[in-house]
Amino acid sequence: MIFSKILKTLALSLVSVISISACQRSIEPDDKRLGYAYFPLEIGRYIVYNVEENTYRISDNGVPQTRFYQLKEIITDTFTNLSGEKQYVLERYVRSSLDSPWQIDSVWSALRTGSQAIKFENNVPYIKLVFPTENNKRWNGNAYNNKGEQIYRITEYRKTKTLGELSFSNTLKVEMGNDSSLVSHIQREEIFAVDVGLIYLFRKNIRYFSDSPNLGSGRIESGKIEKFIIVDYGKE
Q: Region 179-184: what's the mean pLDDT?
């Protein structure tokens, strides 16, 4: 009888140990579990993008002016903002070709709180992500600026993504508006990868010809279409 009780106790202990070990193996670090790793901030981190811009003007009669260049964004410093939070300085450089020297283009900044990732683009704050991240999550990306409500939504979550020669095993896509009509189309989306950050950006803000021969044809009258694709990243 005593021997039977001992065996039962040992068996229950073994089950408990196995259960605890299994739970420990399945728990991700907080930065990945909550989604912080999609928006890493650390001095020295950089990303290089290939950029394509197509600009349409009324005077060009629907023929776009196309520009190709590279953009490098690097975190160079931090400062304490008025709310007492650590904010990171993002220096942005451009060059027209691989053989050209980098030229400073602008200085942006970013910060990450326990619940939000915020990027200041030309001093305009946008809420890029909210934490914890999850599929179909929605928020107002313009909550801290005066540009009017714009609902952002995570439309793909923890997906593998390949861009050129680079592959990323864990990404999410944020749709930041997609409004289309016979006379205009406004669309923006961004893709973030774990431990990397923004790897892809697409922006479209165009108007179509709306005169009677062209209405509904999809012929672009004016506006811009931009695409940013990551080609390199790391830490200096």
A: 91
